Fold:
Amino acid sequence: MQNLIGIVLVLFLLAVFLRIDFYFSIVYLLAAVYLLGRWWTHVGWQHLTIQRRLVNRAFPNETIPVELIVHNSGRLPIPWIEMQDSLPVELISPPFYREVLTLGARQERRFTYTLACYKRGYYPIGPLFVQTGDLLGVTRPLTMQKAPEYVIVYPRVLPLEKLGLPTHSPWAVLPAPAPLFEDPMRIMGVRPYQIGDSPRRIHWTSTAKAGELQVKRYQPAIARETLICLDFAQESYTGRHFYEASELAIVIAASLANHIIVRERLAAGLSTQALDPLEAKTLPFTLPPRRERAHLMSILEVLARAQMTSAPALPFPEFVRLETARLSWGATVVVITGAESPSLYDMLAYLRHAGFALALILVMPAAPTAELRQAALGKLPVYRVWREAELEALA
Amino acid sequence: MSQKPPHVHETDVYLETNNATAHSPGRQAPAGNRFRTLLQPLVVGLMVSCIALAVTQCLQRFAPDWNKTYFLLIPLLAAFMGHTTYRVTRERYPSEADRRHRQIIELALIFLLTKAATYLNHTLPEIWDNIRHWPKDIFYLFDPETLIAFALACTAWFAAALTARDLDAVADPLLYKGETGPMERLNRRFLTGGVVLLFISGLARIDIISLLKPDRPAIHGLALNVLVYFVLGLIVLGQVRFTWLNRLWEQQKYHVAGVLQKTWLRYSVLFLLIALGLAFVLPTQYTVGLLDIARWIIAAIVYLATLIVALITALISFVASLFQTGKDGAVPSAMPSPTLPPLLTEPTSAGPSLPWLNVLRSVIFWVIVLGAMGYIVYSYLKERPEILPTIRAFKVTRMVRGWWHTLRTWWQGMRHAIRTTLPALSLDFLRRKASRQHTSMTRRKGEAWREQIFYSYLETLDRAREVGFPRHDTQTPDEYHRTLEPHLPEAQAELTALTAAFVEARYSTHPVDAHDVDRLQINARHVRAALDKLRAVSRRPSAVSDQPSATTES
Structure:
């Protein structure tokens, strides 16, 4: 009723000019309708709170119940509230939750819907759009947008205990649980602190001098850590099944990390370049090898939210070369990629000469080329995986 | 055999199903349909009757012998017919031409009904006589009374049919036609009808000739039909808004709470009752017009300004008369002071007694009315900031803004002149003074005892400085105590107590009371007496050689 104000003003002038009392009554009535409607809407709006409750992490095939709590803390009822929660189509269909309700004074209502997590990813739940207004439409509706929350669905993790690899297999490392790979008595130097470093390793003198946290680097006796280098560039996964191939690469990385940390109780890390939906840009993800369960969850979170990038900052071989520079001698490097190339073999040869144990996992439909077979003959463990079933068969 | 595209087929199926469901025998009409078929035409008819009643009252002034009843009943009937038959013809006659024929027949029927109604007060011979004259003189058939009643009925019929169309369009988007939405059309029709109703009701009560007389009396009393029209209209608009929103929610697959329809109606009625209560409680009568009050305010400002000028002139002339003497030594007479205008003009109050009460009531009335209007405009502009640039572009607005800017510039210049020429009287000076007074009063109130301790201690230090023992800036109270103590052997205990009391008052936060102050002042007096004694001794010539100079030592 946009003309109401104009009509009220005209009536007011008419009332003043004609000096008729009941004109003023009508002016008051219309003015009260407008002002009371506006006041009611605003007061109700101020006392309206909406809360979303959910567990924001899940494994594939799990469900997440989401609870929306709408509460009116005021003494006035809210005549109508329209709310719409935008949801990812991968988790629910239809991809929204829409509700229209009315709330009495100091009333609370709860609504529940369920998200089905079938596919790994980093999903925004929301934003939640809320709208309310007056009964007659004399004022503009008030709208609010509640910021989205995010749900992480971890990638699938497949068991590898039946892998049947030879003893010199890159990830079948020494079974002894003792930390033989680092000698804390022999400090090689210091390096900047990274997430996951034990506070015991902090070198306080260097930290004070440098102004930032520095940790000690011990001379390794023998390395028992594994770094999983995942190639997640779009150009490496071409062809019709590039989506399935890239997802399979994620599953392989997650399964390996799980196997090494949970089953073998050894340290595993992850290095990849991927599109981060949080930052909306391509970032290098580097998680140095650690063996804590929490570290495994960090690796899975990165793998959950990583998306394929079309513009990595560095070519994959160069990236792996840089990432392994900080690894201890004798560490294992597992390279997962969707394409073979001469530069990849050059990089692998370089790593081998540098004293690392290596493994190459190719996620591709075709058999490895002769050149690759040549490399394989050089006792480089090479595995080709194309279907999840094959991975399970490998395991 | 041509195949229909899938979506066409689906639409046909939908329509067939819909029609079949709508016309199936034995189907019970839900509550919403009952409202649509019975209540809606009735409410619309009532609203139209409210307008018709106002028209009848207005016509009564010009043609008192016309029949009032059928002027009221015919539009009601026409509105009911128009609302109902619009839907019936739309459903039964899909062809536009068929619908037009039916409408013409309907209008002819309304005319006949109107004509028949004009004969209600006549006897049969009179009616027959009138009918016999139809072929000879057409004005026997189309007499002014019939024509005006028919025009009124046609307007009611047409408005009701349009309202039915828009109400249906609100509920069913397939019937939506035109650029303006049905909601907006309904709102506009309601408000236009309201303005027309108010205008006609006003005309029915006011003498047009006296419109231009400024001192004509106000018209009291309530027009019930106007009130009914607005209340019914607002309730209907509330329900229409719900229907509109509900349809949108259904389209967008919202899950709508089942109780919403009931609560909507309940809240609408409650809301309107409160608004109605407010409208009745607020004052509607005034005796002093807005222009009179404005004239009073301007007169008061002019009076005050003249008074100030008169006082200043009198003061200047008095001072000038002190310094100027005539050639023969006679003192010239002071400058003539300006004459003051009368304080206030006679109010045009109609109240017989207590005119100030009438004025007060009028002032309250205008404050409420103008406040409400101002707040409405303010709220509206705040809600729609996109309107502001348009308003600013108006010539009148620019002119008013220019005046306001000039006034502000003048006022700022005035303030500047006052500050530079009369600094002692400037507002800032007064404000600073007031601030200083306020601060000192607060401190005196809050920390009086503590400050008295400081004062006594500092007074003692002053005395010691005069004697020759000044305290250096770098000395703490204890260090200074150690410096002074050897020179006051008879007041060592008092000096120690004085220093300790000062340190406690200066560096602690616990409260200090009058007892502490008294004790400290006794000690301070002892110390000052010892210092005076020391000064007296040092001034004697014999003592100079005996005692080392305090200044040298310090």
